[in-house]
Amino acid sequence: MFAAALVGVALVPRPGEAQLRVVATLPDLYVLTRAVAGDAATVDVVARFGQNPHDMEVRPSHMLLVRRADVLVRNGLEEDAWIDVIARGSNNPKAQRGSPNVIEASQGVEILKVPTGRVDRSMGDVHPSGNPHYTLDPANLPIVTRNIAAGLARVAPEHARVFEANRDAFLEKVAAADQRWKALLAPFRGARIVSHHDSWPYLYRAFGFVEGGIIEDRPGIPPSPQHLAALIRRMREAQVKVILLESWYPPDIANLVARETGAKVLVVPQTPGAINGTDDYVAHLDYIVTAIAHTLS
């Protein structure tokens, strides 16, 4: 223990060293990158906490932020497709696709719901490379944080041991929390859950839930009356108790479905920081897991 403490002291960057500037595109990547980087880098985020990334409006301030970046951390599955416009406008060669300074956080993750066949805009905000919400499964974090740590070390090899030590400490904290989450949700394995948007397949897989339906029949497009009628019928038959509503969506349709089925609408933060007190990874999952357990009990 004493030796480990000495190593930790030795790995802290020296005062006065020029800090690495890292920009993450999305809040979930921001909290993971901050955990890995620690004091060896400054980390900023493009999308605001609580902002639906599909509604992102590119601004000159975003380009200025990325222009100053040494490293860019991106989702890798087009959840942040607007970052290409920002990167080009920044005139920062380090932030362009293919640069060794760009970290594609999804590399190596088993991606769910990869579309088959032709994908076009008539299908709504479909992600051609698969569902991008992979950080909602704690089991994916060893891969995601490995990508982040390796990418940071590629640019700042002098801090490689710092990044790896921070990563190990973070994963240990998440593993302890994951045991708690799984124990809390164990009585509800197999429960069917409906959501407004298709945000949760990785969370369902992690904790043994079953997707009971999605209010949107096409991502980002209001559902048709026929789709809602069929969903309500299935929910009644399956006695679905919970509708997950991402905090940035209006509640009107979810409330209508809840009235027709007897389910409860649970407003949850799909990304860290979207609701007060959820601004790190463990606090974010704590909020979601506790809310679901309370509603299902």
Question: Secondary-structure blueprint of this entry?
Answer:
Elements: H1 2-11, E1 20-24, H2 27-37, E2 41-45, H3 60-67, E3 71-74, H4 83-90, E4 102-104, H5 141-155, H6 160-185, E5 192-195, H7 201-207, E6 210-214, H8 225-238, E7 242-246, H9 252-261, E8 264-268, H10 281-296
Parallel strand pairs: 1-2, 1-3, 3-4, 5-6, 5-7, 7-8
Helix pairs in contact: 2-5, 3-4, 5-6, 6-10
Distance between the termini: 41 Å
What is the highest CATH level, the class of the largest domain?
Alpha Beta
CATH-assigned homologous superfamily of the largest domain: Nitrogenase molybdenum iron protein domain
| Count of discrete alpha- or pi-helical segments spanning 4 or more residues | 10
Instruction: Give me the CATH fold name of the largest domain.
Output: Rossmann fold
Q: Which secondary-structure class do the elements indicate?
A: alpha/beta
Shape: globular
The total domain count is 2
Oligomeric organization of the protein chains: single chain
**Number of DSSP strands?**
8
Largest sheet: 4 strands, parallel
Enumerate the spans where pLDDT stays under 50 for 5 or more consecutive residues.
1-13
Task: Provide the gyration radius in Å.
Answer: 20 Å
Helical content, roughly? 40-55%
SSE order, as H and E?
Answer: HEHEHEHEHHEHEHEHEH
CATH architecture of the largest domain: 3-Layer(aba) Sandwich
- Could you tell me the strand content as a percent range? 5-15%
